[in-house]
Design a protein that fits this description.
With 114 residues, this protein is mainly beta. The chain is built from one helix and nine strands, in the order H-E-E-E-E-E-E-E-E-E.
Length: 114
């Protein structure tokens, strides 16, 4: 039994650092029949250098903001963000809407971090 436990501990120590993490930056924008638009865009922390590897939703693009509220980047086509590199820090995303057609949008940006 001791050799099994010792082997497991050795394997864990030799495995090296933990695998990269994934940050999920999410946002919701809804102005359907509302006086003021509903925007839910919590700050999400990206722990290390990160690269966007997938974008779900955001049919009309999005704007990404840093913790100070400064615009980092804006896309009309959300899929163009794949490959974008982000520095460590906190971010929020607000999906764009089409005033004439689609008044409700959700987006999730997946970032692989070091």
């Amino acid at each position: 039994m001791r050799s099994l436990v010792g082997g497991v501990v050795a394997a864990l120590l030799l495995a090296g650092p933990a695998q990269a993490g994934i940050a999920k930056i999410k946002g919701l924008h809804d102005d359907h029949e509302r006086i003021e638009p509903l925007i839910k865009a919590p700050m999400t922390k990206v722990e290390g250098q990160g690269t966007v590897f997938a974008v779900i939703g955001g049919d009309y693009g999005f704007t990404l903001y840093d913790a100070s509220g400064a615009e980092v980047v804006e896309y009309e086509d959300s899929q163009e963000a794949v490959g974008l590199t982000l520095a460590p820090g906190s971010y929020r995303v607000i999906p764009s809407i089409d005033d004439d057609v689609h008044h409700h949008q959700f987006i999730e940006i997946l970032v692989k971090t070091d």
